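#struct-help
A.M.: can someone run this one for me? Single chain, 474 residues.
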Amino acid sequence: MPLIYQIAIIHIIMIKEILKNPEKFGIGNQVEVKGWVRTKRGNNAVAFIALNDGSTVHNIQIVADLAHFSEELIKQITTGACLRVTGKLVESQGKGQSVEIQAESIEIYGTADPESYPLQKKGHSMEFLREIAHLRPRTNYFGCVLRLRHALSYAIHTYFNNHGYFYMHTPIITASDAEGAGAMFNVTTFDLHNVPKNAEGGVDFSQDFFGKHTSLTVSGQLEGELGAMALGKIYTFGPTFRAENSNTPRHLAEFWMIEPEVAFFDITDNMNLAEDFIKYLVSYVLEHNYDDIQFLNDMFDKELIDRLRFVIDNEFVRLTYTEAIEILKASGKKFEFKVEWGVDLQSEHERYLVENHFKKPVILTDYPKSIKAFYMKQNEDGKTVRAMDVLFPKIGEIIGGSEREADYDKLLTRIREMNIPEKDIWWYLETRKFGTAPHAGFGLGFERMMLFITGMGNIRDVIPFPRTPQNAEF
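D.P.: on it. Structure tokens below:
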């Protein structure tokens, strides 16, 4: 006989619930809310306290009749203080909210000294807020960003689960470099003041924890392919790391990647998946987090909602890299980086195609083999591979993917051409020896997607605690 557990769940009323459906709680009934003070104003008779608990960008107004509360208590209610308020839910007499709470009791959980609390004033710069990453989630901007990060994460899992994909956890510590970039963080247990050497004078990794040179992963793709060759459809969603010394608004040392891999997919299937997936994510946040999007649109980026709808409402244009080069050359526009066949397109080129030429999202395919990774399927021309990049307004490339090379001999030749040690990737090659199959996949940088969803201009502002060169304080 199965055991039956009865668990008492303590339900804290969230401000979002009250503002969204006040009838559920009943006008005139007593309610209890908890949160942090955003502002306090008033006169000699009454104090108006804007309280926020993080569930919504909107505050609920607490009306405190000063005759019912001590002067000492009211003095301690300053911006940043944390309160528990019990009172009557009433229709609001002011503009901007439908209901408010007439306070009957106020308990102060924690005070915030107005002389030292750094969020006393509005209008702080993003640079300043990065210096106080432990407090910036309390601002409206970053409250919106963090709620949208949650919603987008949930939407990603929901989409893939609904389409029959399996969530696969790929290793964070790896002995292979999926991108061939070399900019990886080393993982070691060595005492860096006494590193063991081998006979040639190099580092003797055989004495290290894993017995070989290991690093933090730059991608879960290669391991994801192993899952696709057994389960059919998988996706990864986890942290990845790059040790590039890049202090730009588009680069992080630690970031999150979503990487689906699908057996029996070709490049066209891959493009169809990418377009459908992206449109679902944008539609999801517009439906479920419209208040946050609206706030960012009104206060930060007036074109945000239009750009989001632009992606949903337009079919993505599909063309080859070669066709794109011809368009860019014929544009008459002076680009900072030269345009010629064989170069890796820069953000300015990608954005021109999306924002100026087509005025639609773009998927580019069939890139030169020389500028793409070893695992991409080679075309019959011997010069190009079945790569694809999805290009968005304001961002440029937001997705990169390809059909994978399924032919053992072609893959081995390419690995040797790129001087990738076969001893480090033998297991990847073996999937082409035992039951090889066509397959494809792509990578979506989660923070790049967040940049697009929020309209933020710097990737450091869409992750709770950014990791960049010389910055790992929090």
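A.M.: thanks! The chain has a mean pLDDT of 94.
D.P.: also worth noting: The two ends are 50 Å apart (CA to CA).
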